[in-house]
């Protein structure tokens, strides 16, 4: 009898019973794997939700300066992430990854779990270790412990690398075909990484650039421009005092200080100007140090100021730092009142007024004003260095607030360092874009040749809309003069010699986003023809307003937003004599751009 002739098993035969037992066993195994897989999927998803929430809490605690609490939450995040990764990589989900319909969801879940574990075990500890060293970076004599920063650099760099890798992985996951809970998990993970990424990116850049800039590889010299916002310039104000700071192995010493008139040289450009610079700013941009801040693009300001300082002193500095009296006021608020040699007390509430208004009433001679200004700036900076060991976090918070308002700008003459600074708000670069976000610029330059900008109240707002012709942003600039009638009580040096006493004249430059155009400018309700120019590959519209005491003007500009920049619109502005919140761009209807409004400074 051949095998084909073998009769089927009789009902109840041993072969039939064995086959039934095999199928029952197989079904039990499959059912167990399904249940096990469902449990693991639930464990993985739950762990990821907890890890994401913990990571965001770590970020908030770090920014608040509570490193101890952040470390405890970081441990929780690491435990949750490891648990999620372990569940996602066990046998049931490994097998399920090859199945139709659910395979993509399982793959996405595993990718998110791997990314979360990488951040929790690599990124967060590195950041926390770095932040934990801040309290010990400054010695009692005010010297910054450059070696400590260099020692923390590898861990910080690994943290930044882990976050960058996680960002790339998460951005590569398409959520369109995923089931709701998995898609939600991917979104939560992206949001958590987005919260952490700016912290690790900034820390990573600082770890790479700070040691060398503070003299770890040899002494450095920097030029500090202390801007006077009482006479506005696009980058802030005219440089009223210039200081040369020598840095060696974390120690700081002011070795030279001069007023603007001591730096200005022959009536010739210190560096060749481009045709666009000559058209917008005139030849004074390259001739007078008071005017190097006419351009809002700080790298150009720094190059010009460095060349002028070298022409006047013979010293070629390694970098340029710009600050203003509002920065000094924030520093004084963080470190304590400062008493000057003449008995003047600078406070955390009145420093800006003293330096931008009162000094001009008390010290009539411009040369003496510059000298007094330099003494005040040096006293504040000296106190900041002395008190850094006891209040490092308060000082960093003050500088962070000033940087957000575009009041602290930094440029390095060393290309490798400048390439790292260029991606930060410290760079003060004007590019019309910040990653995927378009950036609108509103920059002011005084046209009074006086010190009347103290009396200028200025507000800027913007609203993004979607029109049949594409995205638009409507920028509203309002300026009002609070000067006393007829300039009563103000010396001629403050009111100037060219305008009726008490008037203030201000030129404003409106910069469209990269690839966009300024379509229309409406001044006080009337469409107005304004001067147009192209600068830094950006469309610029310029206008000048002259205000008598009590007068105001409102300018509304409509700009196009290019399709290629899909992020929320950001707004960059001149830091004036008075502290102001970082402007937020409202949304009036989406055109497929990112959700929510945005704020920030370009650079």
Which SSEs are present, and which pair or pack?
Layout: H1 14-64, H2 67-88, H3 91-96, H4 103-132, H5 146-171, H6 180-213, E1 220-233, E2 236-248, E3 251-258, H7 275-281, H8 298-313, E4 319-323, H9 325-335, E5 338-339, E6 345-346, H10 351-362, H11 366-387, H12 392-404, E7 409-412, H13 415-421, E8 433-434, E9 437-446, E10 456-467, E11 470-481, H14 492-495, E12 504-511, E13 518-523, E14 526-527, E15 531-535, E16 538-547, E17 552-560, E18 570-573, E19 584-587, E20 598-599
Parallel strand pairs: 1-4, 9-18, 10-19
Antiparallel strand pairs: 1-2, 2-3, 4-7, 5-6, 8-9, 9-12, 10-11, 11-17, 12-16, 13-14, 13-17, 15-16, 19-20
Helix pairs in contact: 1-2, 1-4, 1-6, 2-4, 4-5, 4-6, 5-6, 9-10, 9-11, 9-12
If you had to describe this structure to a student in words, what would you say it looks like?
It comes from Cellulomonas fulva. It holds the Pfam family DUF4012. This is DUF4012 domain-containing protein. It is a single chain. The chain is α+β, with helices and mostly antiparallel strands and 603 residues long. It folds into 3 domains: 14-212, no CATH class; 220-415, 3-Layer(aba) Sandwich (Aminopeptidase), CATH 3.40.630; 430-599, Immunoglobulin-like (Sandwich). The chain is globular, with a radius of gyration of 31 Å. The longest helix is centred in the first third of the chain and has 51 residues, at 14-64. The chain has helices at 14-64, 67-88, 91-96, 103-132, 146-171, 180-213, 275-281, 298-313, 325-335, 351-362, 366-387, 392-404, 415-421, 492-495; strands spanning 220-233, 236-248, 251-258, 319-323, 338-339, 345-346, 409-412, 433-434, 437-446, 456-467, 470-481, 504-511, 518-523, 526-527, 531-535, 538-547, 552-560, 570-573, 584-587, 598-599. It is built from 14 helices and 20 strands. The protein has a 7-stranded mixed beta sheet with strand order 14-13-17-11-10-19-20, with no helix packed on it. The model is unreliable at 21-48, 90-103 and 593-601 (pLDDT under 50). 43% of the residues lie in helices and 22% in strands.
């Amino acid at each position: 009898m051949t095998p084909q002739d073998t009769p089927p098993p009789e009902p109840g035969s041993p072969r039939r019973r064995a086959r039934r037992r095999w199928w029952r066993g197989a079904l039990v195994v499959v059912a167990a794997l399904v249940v096990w897989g469902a449990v693991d999927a639930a464990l993985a998803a739950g762990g990821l939700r907890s890890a994401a929430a913990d990571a965001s809490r770590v970020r908030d605690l770090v920014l608040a300066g509570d490193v101890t609490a952040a470390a405890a939450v970081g441990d929780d995040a690491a435990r949750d992430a490891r648990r999620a990764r372990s569940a996602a990589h066990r046998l049931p989900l490994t097998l399920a990854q090859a199945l139709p319909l659910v395979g993509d969801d399982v793959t996405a879940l595993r990718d998110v779990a791997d990314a979360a574990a990488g951040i929790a075990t690599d990124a967060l500890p590195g950041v926390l270790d770095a932040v934990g060293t801040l309290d010990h970076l400054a010695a009692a004599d005010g010297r910054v412990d450059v070696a400590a920063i260099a020692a923390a650099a590898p861990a910080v760099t690994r943290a930044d690398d882990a976050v960058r890798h996680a960002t790339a992985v998460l951005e590569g996951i398409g959520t369109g075909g995923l089931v709701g809970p998995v898609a939600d998990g991917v979104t939560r993970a992206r949001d958590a990484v987005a919260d952490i990424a700016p912290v690790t990116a900034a820390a990573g850049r600082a770890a790479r650039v700070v040691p060398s800039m503070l003299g770890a590889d040899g002494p450095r010299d920097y030029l500090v421009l202390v801007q006077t916002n009482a006479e506005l310039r696009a980058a802030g104000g005219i440089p009223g005092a210039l200081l040369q700071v020598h840095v060696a192995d974390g120690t700081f010493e002011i070795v030279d200080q001069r007023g603007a008139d001591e730096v200005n040289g022959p009536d010739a450009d210190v560096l060749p100007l481009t045709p666009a610079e000559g058209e917008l700013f005139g030849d004074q941009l390259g001739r007078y140090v008071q005017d190097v801040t006419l351009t809002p693009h700080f790298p150009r300001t720094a190059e010009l100021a460095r060349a002028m300082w070298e022409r006047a002193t013979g010293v070629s500095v390694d970098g340029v730092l710009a600050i203003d009296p509002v920065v000094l006021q924030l520093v004084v608020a963080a470190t304590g009142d400062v008493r000057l040699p003449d008995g003047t007390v600078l406070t955390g509430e009145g420093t800006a007024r003293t330096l931008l208004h009162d000094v001009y009433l008390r010290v009539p001679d411009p040369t003496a004003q510059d000298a007094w200004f330099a003494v005040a700036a040096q006293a504040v900076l000296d106190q900041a260095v002395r008190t850094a060991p006891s209040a490092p976090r308060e000082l960093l918070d003050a500088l962070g607030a000033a940087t957000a308002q575009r009041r602290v700008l930094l440029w390095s003459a060393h290309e490798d360092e400048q390439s790292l600074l260029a991606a930060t708000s410290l760079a003060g670069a004007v590019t019309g874009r910040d990653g995927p976000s378009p950036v609108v610029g509103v920059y002011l330059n005084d046209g009074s040749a006086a010190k009347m900008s103290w009396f200028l109240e200025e507000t800027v707002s913007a609203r993004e809309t979607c029109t049949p012709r594409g995205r638009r942003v409507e920028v509203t600039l309002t300026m009002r003069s609070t000067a006393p009638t007829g300039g009563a009580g103000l010396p001629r040096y403050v009111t100037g010699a060219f305008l009726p006493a008490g008037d203030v004249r201000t030129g404003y430059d409106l910069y469209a986003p990269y690839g966009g155009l300024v379509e229309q400018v409406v001044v006080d309700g009337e469409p107005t023809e304004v001067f147009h120019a192209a600068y830094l590959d950006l469309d610029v519209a310029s206008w000048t307003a002259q205000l008598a005491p009590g007068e105001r003007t409102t300018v509304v500009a409509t700009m196009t937003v290019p399709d290629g920049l899909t992020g929320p619109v950001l707004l960059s502005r001149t830091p004036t004599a008075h502290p102001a919140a970082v402007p937020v761009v409202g949304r009036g209807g989406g055109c497929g751009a990112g959700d929510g409004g945005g704020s920030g400074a370009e650079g």
